[in-house]
Specification:
about 35% helix, alpha/beta, 8 helices, 7-stranded mixed sheet, about 20% strand
C-alpha cells in the first residue's frame, strides 16, 4: 500500500492572511506540519498542495515537495486530487492511498495518520476513512467544530456545524468531532472531483457531505490524539504554549 500525504494550503484567508507561513517558535506553520507528517512510518511521500508560488518557494527551500494547483478550487479535497495527479505524472508513479492533512494544524500528531490508515488494513474494501475525536467542553455549540453522527457500524450519517444530535431531554450527547484528516482510496478521491457539488455540502461547507449525499460510505475512525487549529492570529500564542509543554 503506497501512501502519499498532501497538505492543502493557500495564503488567502479572510480571518488570517498568509496563515500557512505564520511563524511558530521560529518555524513556519507549514514546516511544523510537514516535519510531523514525515515522522509517520506508513507515509511514503509528503507534499504541500498550493496555488501560491510563495508557498512553493518556501517549501522547496526547506528541501520538501510542493505541488502548484489551480486557484479556483473551493474544496481542499479537489485541490488534493489535482495535486496527486500532478505528483504521479512528475514521478511516473502511482499511489494507493491519499491522506489529506489540514494546513492549519501545526500540532498534527504522526500517530493520527497511523490511526486513519489502520482501517484499510483490516477492511481493504473501504473507500474513505475520516478521523474523529471526542468533543471537548465548549465545542458542541461552536460552528468551528464539525459534529458527526454515525451508524452502529461507525459510518458517518451526517456532519454539521450545528449542535447535533439534539436530545429531547436537553442533555448534550454528541457523537464526535470530525477532523480534517481524511484518507482516500486514490480512485475515490478522483471520483470526488467528478461528483456534482451538493446542497448540504455547500450549506455546511463540509467536503465529506458531497460523498454522503451521493451515497459514498465514509468510515469514521476515532483518535485519542488532540491538535489545536490556528484559525486566527491569537491562536499562535496558545499553540506555542502547548508545544513548549509537549517539549518538556
Amino acid at each position: 500500500m503506497k501512501v502519499v500525504a498532501l497538505i492543502p494550503a493557500r495564503l488567502a484567508s479572510t480571518r488570517f492572511p498568509n496563515k500557512p507561513l505564520a511563524s511558530i517558535l521560529g518555524k513556519s506553520m507549514l514546516q511544523h506540519i510537514v516535519e510531523r507528517v514525515r515522522m509517520c512510518e506508513e507515509i511514503d511521500e509528503v507534499a504541500v498542495a498550493t496555488c501560491d508560488q510563495e508557498i512553493v518557494d518556501h517549501i522547496e527551500a526547506l528541501g520538501y515537495k510542493a505541488v502548484m494547483t489551480s486557484n479556483t478550487h473551493e474544496r481542499a479535497s479537489d485541490r488534493c486530487a489535482e495535486a496527486v495527479s500532478k505528483l504521479e505524472k512528475s514521478e511516473q508513479s502511482s499511489y494507493d492511498i491519499v491522506v489529506m492533512v489540514q494546513g492549519d494544524e501545526p500540532m498534527t500528531d504522526p500517530r493520527m495518520l497511523s490511526d486513519v490508515l489502520r482501517p484499510f488494513l483490516s477492511h481493504p474494501n473501504l473507500d474513505v476513512v475520516n478521523l474523529y475525536a471526542d468533543i471537548q467542553p465548549g465545542e458542541f455549540r461552536s460552528p468551528n467544530c464539525v459534529k458527526v453522527v454515525m451508524d452502529l457500524a461507525g459510518n458517518a450519517l451526517y456532519m454539521s456545524r450545528a449542535p447535533i444530535p439534539v436530545s429531547q431531554d436537553g442533555v448534550e450527547r454528541p457523537s464526535g468531532k470530525q477532523l480534517g484528516l481524511i484518507a482516500f482510496k486514490r480512485e475515490v478521491l478522483q471520483r470526488f472531483t467528478e461528483l456534482t457539488p451538493t446542497p448540504l455540502e455547500i450549506n455546511e461547507s463540509v467536503d465529506m457531505l458531497r460523498f454522503l449525499e451521493h451515497g459514498v460510505t465514509v468510515r469514521m475512525q476515532r483518535t485519542v490524539y488532540r491538535t489545536h487549529a490556528v484559525d486566527i492570529p491569537s491562536d499562535i500564542a496558545e499553540v506555542e504554549r502547548l508545544m513548549k509543554t509537549q517539549a518538556n
